[in-house]
User: Which sequence fits this backbone?
């Protein structure tokens, strides 16, 4: 990305805040001019000192924010700048809360226009977010929030003193019921016009945290997309005779879940009221449980699914076979994307040769298969031989002996399958495959 000499913060609509020690920082690194400078209305001084620290894995630009009172605030930041977007990677020390207030004073004149707000990292996150979304920093146009806690340390440093926090050890700070008096985030949160929400390293088994989130999110009339990264609550007993609240989202059309336990998945299905859900992406990682209860419950709760993406890691054969039966009762399914860690032949045959009412293939217009056990591309002849299929795009990826082979082609015709019958992928041999365009 080209560096920018000026940035008009009065036009800023996106603010990204990333905390320094998060691996995700590496994905947003850009080159910034040593002499990048901005002069803005309503801010006494905001300028970058020409000092850059370099390491093997990142470039950090040292920025000094000076307020009218002459208070210097030194923050390590990583800039990502575009017309409407600003990313800041920060590392706060023991003066974290004071720095929050100073930063908010700088940002407050522009929060009225923010539309996207992204935070990565665990450092003082609950304090920072609660302050950001309180009445002191109004965000009436905010439509998307992304929160990824990345790694959560087992102890927290506050006022320069490390101390253990039993609840913090077992749950990320965002929704944890903390013992050290930190404010609870969701109790002060107003979604307003929010349409998209991403939560990384979610609440774990914290029922109170889930209920606070469910109550706040259910008050958002426009929320259409949610992504959960990491665990969500399981059905553990609710203290003091309490009950789990339903998450009522009538406008939710897209849901993404990664690395979720089957018990938690079933819990979400039973406590999420989203009758218009159209798109679901899941990463399922568990080797001991099958997903049959989920398979049986899902079509009843979300019958309108059109796009389904499933990544299955270390699932046993029973679990995988139960998931295949999951596709058939979805009458509106048009897009299917599957990523298998390992796949037994029985599952592969059930997938490509579904019997009777289980045959979902004629309804698809897009099929994506990753790490499929292709011994011969002729195994895909079911597409060629199915006269009534409507698949317009197929994507394949296969890895064998450290070599990756990818095919992505629109099926303008099916002749490309006939042209590749002499290409075999076997345990002892891997040949180059190129893309044929029908």
Assistant:
């Amino acid at each position: 990305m080209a560096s920018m000499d000026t940035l008009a913060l009065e036009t800023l609509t996106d603010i990204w805040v990333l905390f320094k020690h998060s691996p995700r920082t590496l994905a947003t690194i850009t080159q910034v001019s040593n002499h990048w400078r901005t002069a803005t209305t309503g801010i006494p001084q905001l300028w970058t000192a020409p000092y850059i620290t370099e390491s093997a894995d990142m470039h950090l630009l040292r920025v000094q924010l000076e307020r009218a009172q002459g208070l210097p605030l030194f923050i390590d930041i990583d800039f990502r700048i575009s017309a409407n977007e600003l990313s800041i990677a920060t590392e706060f020390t023991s003066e974290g809360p004071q720095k929050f207030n100073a930063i908010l004073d700088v940002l407050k004149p522009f929060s009225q226009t923010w539309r996207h707000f992204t935070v990565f990292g665990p450092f003082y996150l609950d304090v920072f977010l609660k302050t950001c979304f309180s009445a002191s920093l109004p965000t009436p146009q905010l439509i998307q929030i992304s929160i990824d806690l990345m790694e959560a340390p087992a102890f927290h440093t506050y006022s320069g003193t490390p101390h253990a926090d039993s609840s913090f050890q077992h749950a990320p700070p965002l929704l944890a019921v903390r013992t050290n008096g930190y404010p609870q985030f969701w109790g002060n949160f107003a979604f307003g016009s929010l349409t998209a929400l991403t939560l990384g390293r979610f609440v774990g088994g914290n029922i109170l945290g889930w209920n606070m989130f469910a109550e706040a999110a259910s008050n958002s009339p426009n929320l259409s997309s949610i992504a959960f990264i990491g665990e969500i609550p399981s059905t553990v007993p609710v203290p003091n005779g309490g009950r789990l609240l339903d998450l009522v989202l009538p406008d939710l059309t897209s849901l993404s879940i990664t690395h979720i336990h089957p018990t938690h998945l079933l819990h979400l299905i039973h406590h999420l009221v989203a009758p218009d859900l159209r798109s679901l992406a899941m990463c399922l990682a568990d080797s001991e449980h099958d997903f049959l209860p989920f398979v049986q419950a899902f079509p009843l709760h979300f019958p309108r699914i059109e796009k389904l993406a499933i990544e299955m890691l270390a699932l046993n054969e029973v679990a995988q076979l139960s998931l295949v039966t999951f596709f058939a009762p979805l009458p509106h399914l048009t897009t299917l994307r599957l990523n298998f860690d390992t796949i037994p032949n029985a599952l592969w045959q059930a997938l490509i040769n579904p019997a009777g009412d289980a045959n979902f293939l004629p309804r698809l217009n897009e099929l994506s298969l990753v790490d499929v056990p292709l011994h011969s591309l002729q195994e895909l002849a079911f597409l060629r031989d199915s006269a009534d299929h409507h698949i317009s795009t197929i994507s394949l990826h296969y890895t064998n002996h450290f070599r990756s082979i990818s095919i992505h082609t629109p099926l303008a015709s099916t002749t490309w399958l006939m042209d590749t019958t002499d290409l075999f992928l076997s345990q002892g041999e891997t040949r180059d495959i190129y893309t044929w365009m029908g």
